[in-house]
Hints:
Layout: H1 5-21, H2 24-38, H3 43-52, E1 56-61, E2 64-69, H4 86-98, H5 104-119, H6 128-136, H7 139-145, H8 147-150, E3 186-193, E4 206-212, E5 218-223, H9 228-241, E6 248-251, H10 260-268, E7 272-275, H11 285-299, H12 307-326, E8 333-338, E9 344-348, H13 355-361, H14 367-378, H15 382-406
Parallel strand pairs: 3-6, 6-7
Antiparallel strand pairs: 1-2, 3-4, 4-5, 8-9
Amino acid sequence: MGFTMAEKKKIRAEYATKYRKAKKTEKTKILDKYLELIGKGNRKYAIFILNREGKKQLRFIDGKNVNIVITGNRRRKRIYKKYYDDEVASVLIKLWKFFRYICGERLVPLLRANIDVISRKRQFGITPEIKEKLLTISRSTVERLLTEERKKHKLKGKSTTKKGTLLKNQIPVRRFWAWDEKQPGFCEIDTVSHDGGGEINSHYAWTLTATDVALCWTEVRAIKNKAQKWTMEAADDIYRAFPVPIKGFDSDSGGEFINQYFKKYCEERKINFTRGRARHSNDNCFVEQKNGDVIRKTVEYFRYEGDEAFSALKKVYSYLNPLINYFYPTKKTVDKKTLPNGKVKKIFEKQLKTPYERLLEHPAVSEQDKKRAMRIKATLDIVALHEKLEKACEELFCIAAKKAGSS
């Protein structure tokens, strides 16, 4: 049979007096006897209540100093005031949705670099106090505040790549990390289907994506369908608009790239044309990641069919391209190591940077290219671009919905 609560209080009061008067060496013995008598308990908690029981404290109550005797084993619960309170969380969720649901690791440097422009827009409701907190908020805090909202947004899709049968043996295979990716101008290129999960034919739009491996610079173009004419036109437009001279294209084994025309196009411009292995999407991991993080998160999985949808898709990309390259920070792999157990460990940059910042810092980029990029950046407004992007996306989704309803 154990002791009752009244008996435990008497024992505690008796041992507490002895414990506080005892020397350091004797306190251990008294504590051991106390724990043995009442049954095994938490040693640190026993020290806390023996130091506290029957002790007098001077407290300020109702405007008077009062001596009270502390009794009982309840700790006074601390009341914490949240620094990043509900107001900060509400503004953060607005910003997260406005900037296309990017992760906290990228959202934090984006806010710190553009907070002056963003805070001037009334739609976010950013007060001086909230602005100060957003400048000091950490990635882990952002992820914690967005946990519940993040569960509501999930995306999925399917592969529509069809292998190219022409010239496959004449185009060299490039494996992941095989070429000198520290040099700007080497790009991975791929297409994204906008079939809406329905019938796969030649009547719906596609997206052509090109990503520079060194700079993480990404250009996307809408194409009417997968016909060679539109693929070549989009690739040529990217070639002319790219901020640095393109030195290499690396594609998957899709027929839109593995053909005589695209091979000849690259040879005429002295572009190193390579391809990844069939059924090895990691060979084109840089552009594949952009297909999901940039394309699908922006235009989603609807079916875009017809000239009206194609024009709306082009309009969306005209606002999306400057945003992802001049304002959105990206996480870049700088090295990889094979561990003794056979697993590959990737090593990332310590500080996230935008493709624009990488372009300015890279020693291989010419001063002329850097100045041209700086002139373009000076004309851009991140909030205005996002507002136009949201409006363009709404128009695109309405067109897709009408088309789906009519069919």
